[in-house]
Design goal:
4 strands, mainly alpha, two-stranded antiparallel sheet, globular
């Protein structure tokens, strides 16, 4: 890894990126004094205060945003007391969170709730819906024919890809994994399976992730975590992401939410989050 880029990610202006760089890119133990200092600064930062303010709103959408933010920051339930908010959201939604059910489960697994009985049941129930093409269908039954194996929803399936990579990192059984991986590799990740020159959804390097818009850097990172970073099916996506590099090792952000749930980076400028995920994908690609 380029030492200059690592130092850029380790600057104090974004303690969440610094924290994840330390524990995920550099594999430094959480018991390390410098990592503890970063974690302490993150937990006392304005970022976390904003998260807790989301919880105070007490609505399903605000709880979901808060959990998404904490998952993105690399925080888990052992570091911050959020169990009561998770229980509240599970009770309220029973994982029927519209199109966002896979994204919600991804966040709960990342936050350390994989062993919660309700989460286990949610995983089992949702993965049973996997289609013949390896993907997952839209919740709107009017848009798909369950007898057609090629009508999965790309947006929804991408949430399940992120969820599966989180499960895989934590050693959780993923019997659906191969079918899901093939869903992407058979289409060069981003393209129509029947037209490999047509990108399905031109999201680009969008960040932070939202259940209808998950950036290409996160898709590639998930596939690399699942051991497919060097697969020929990922080659075109690597090339596309390389075109987003500014020439100095920093990757450009294409777009963001108007009101993101984490501190907003400036579109069309180098992004620490996008760069972090590309470097993390490269790390897993080398394993």
């Amino acid at each position: 890894m380029d030492e200059n880029i690592i130092q850029w990610l380790m600057e104090d202006d974004n303690p969440a990126v610094k924290y994840r760089t330390q524990i995920e890119l550099l594999d430094i133990s959480k018991d390390n004094a410098e990592v503890k200092a970063t974690q302490k600064k993150l937990l006392s930062s304005k970022c976390i205060k904003t998260v807790m303010a989301y919880f105070d709103i007490g609505k399903d959408y605000s709880d979901s945003h808060a959990l998404s933010a904490l998952a993105e920051y690399g925080i888990t339930r052992t570091e911050i007391d959020i169990d009561r908010y998770v229980d509240r959201l599970i009770t309220s939604t029973n994982f029927h969170d519209g199109c966002g059910e896979g994204f919600l489960l991804r966040n709960l697994v990342a936050l350390g709730f994989a062993e919660r009985p309700a989460v286990k049941q949610g995983l089992s129930r949702l993965f049973a819906k996997q289609q013949n093409d390896g993907g997952y269908t839209c919740i709107d039954s009017s848009t798909w024919n369950p007898k057609d194996p090629n009508k999965s929803c790309y947006r929804k399936t991408t949430m399940y890809l992120l969820l599966t990579s989180e499960m895989y990192k934590k050693g959780i059984d993923c019997p659906h994994k191969e079918g899901l991986i093939n869903y992407y590799l058979n289409r060069d990740v981003l393209f129509r399976h029947d037209d490999l020159e047509h990108i399905i959804i031109n999201v680009g390097t969008f960040h932070p992730p939202f259940y209808t818009r998950i950036g290409w850097h996160m898709i590639l990172c998930a596939l690399s975590i699942l051991g497919k970073g060097n697969d020929p099916g990922c080659k075109r996506l690597w090339e596309i992401l390389d075109s987003k590099c500014d020439g100095n090792g920093k990757y450009i952000l294409d777009g963001s939410l108007t009101k993101p749930y984490i501190k907003r980076e400036t579109p069309k400028k180098p992004s620490k989050w996008v760069t972090f995920y590309v470097l993390l994908a490269e790390k897993y690609r080398r394993l």
